[in-house]
Amino acid sequence: RLDFTEFNIAQPFTCGSSSTPVQCTTTDGPLIGDCIYDSMIVTTPGSPAPPVVCGYNTGQHMYVESSQECNRVSFNFELAKNVDRSWKIKVTQYDSTQDQRFLAPPGCLQWNYGSLGTINNFNYKDDSSYHLSSQRYSICWRRERGKCSLCISIGVFGMSNVPSTVKPSPSSTSTTPWTKLAGFTDSICCSADTPSANCATSGANDFIEFQGAKEPPAGSVFKVGDGNRFCGRWLGIASPPTPAPSYSYKATNAAKTICTQVTPYRMRVHFSDGEVLSSTSANVCGESTSTAKTNDISDECSKFRLYGNRRGTVGFQFVWWQADC
Q1: 3-state secondary structure the chain
Q2: Number of neighbours of residue 241 by Cβ within 10 angstroms
Q3: 58 pLDDT higher than 80
Q4: Is residue 185 within 8 Å of 230, Cβ to Cβ?
Q5: In angstroms, rounded to a whole number, what is the distance separating the alpha carbons of residues 173 and 274?
Q6: What is the C-alpha separation between 50 and 132, in angstroms, rounded?
Q7: pTM
Q8: Contact at 8 Å (CB) between 56 and 7?
Q9: Distance (Å) of CA 241 to CA 165, 173, 259
Q10: How large is the average pLDDT for residues 139-161?
Q11: Does residue 77 or residue 188 have the better pLDDT?
Q12: Angle in degrees, CA 268, 317, 291, rounded to 5
């Protein structure tokens, strides 16, 4: 287990952020989120390697499979990039005699235990951050004694664009304005391995996947699952029926609480290898009211017009808790 007690190196390639005040062009989309300056790479011979990370990751952790061929943690720095760098990583090695309750299940890069906490993507510091590209990993939770469901609620959420209209159901012959469905429809949160998806142009190729998601209470037989994949700038389609513990909802953060009883508790993170930007130079990473009203379905870097004012490049931060049986 690698605990990033302190981790702050150069940011990835970004557009118009406080750390990189460079305005992107229409052709820069494939570079956004790439660790082209500094990076940290962990090798796991014989096992899938964790994603390459950079930027701000203080408080994050990773579980990696040990190897007889040696695991390496390598930092690569672009010394021409003038930034303050600092890192401190705690390394804990586990063997087969350790308490299995503290070991991550296979395929879980991050492993959380307890009844309440927060999670966020790599390089998340605040709502001006940019999520990293080419990220595919799972965040998992240990089910605690006396708890029967896991719930998550939004702190910050902004990833991908969504089409201007979507089908209410796969068999439907009509479409519905996307603002009524933004954020939870499996059919518009797509990946390149979905043959029928047009991810390259829709931009809806960044998403989280939360199996068995439904609005609380998770155990109710009268609640229908909302879907498994979530993308866009708005998590869910309704105000939360139940508040998260110790969390104050605001108009800019209003979103849906989603829960699951499917175990093992697992959330899959899927960020593509770049972002879709507007083909109009003046609209790239737009923030003005006039731009935002028309641009949030074609430019992932632009701010959102209705819910939360989030860019589609920020990523996520969630409050999570385990509910009693």
Answers
A1: CEEEEEEECCCCCCCCCCCCCCCCCCCCHHHCCCCCCCEEEECCCCCCCCCCECCECCCCEECCCCCCCCCCEEEECCCCCCCCCEEEEEECCCCCCCCHHHCCCCCCCEEECCCEEEEECCCCCCCCCCCCCCEEEEEEECCCCCEEEEEEEEEEEEECCCCCEECCCCCCCCCEEHHHCCCCCCCCCCCCCCCCCCHHHHCCCCEEEECCCECCCCCCCCCCCCCCEECECCCCCCCCCCCCCCCCCCCCCCCCCEEECCCCEEEEEEECCCCCCCCCHHHCCCCCHHHHHHHCCCCCCCECCCCCCCECCCEEEEEEEEEEC
A2: 11
A3: yes
A4: no
A5: 32
A6: 13
A7: 0.84
A8: yes
A9: 26, 31, 12
A10: 89
A11: 77
A12: 105
Tokens describing residue 308: 């939360």
Amino acid at 283: N
* pLDDT, tens only, 242-268: 444 433 334 444 456 788 999 999 999
CA distances from 2 to 6, 28, 52, 111, 307 (A): 11, 33, 14, 11, 36
Provide the 10 A C-beta neighbour count for residue 250.
Answer: 8
Average pLDDT in the chain = 78
- Among 16, 13, 51, 19, smallest CA distance to 31 is for 13
Q: Which residue has the tokens 């490049």?
A: 313
Q: Among 85, 87, 81, 86, which residue's Cα sits nearest to residue 20?
A: 81
Which tokens sit at 243?
């508040």
Residue 183 pLDDT: 46
Distances (CA, A) of 138 to 63, 228, 300: 11, 14, 23
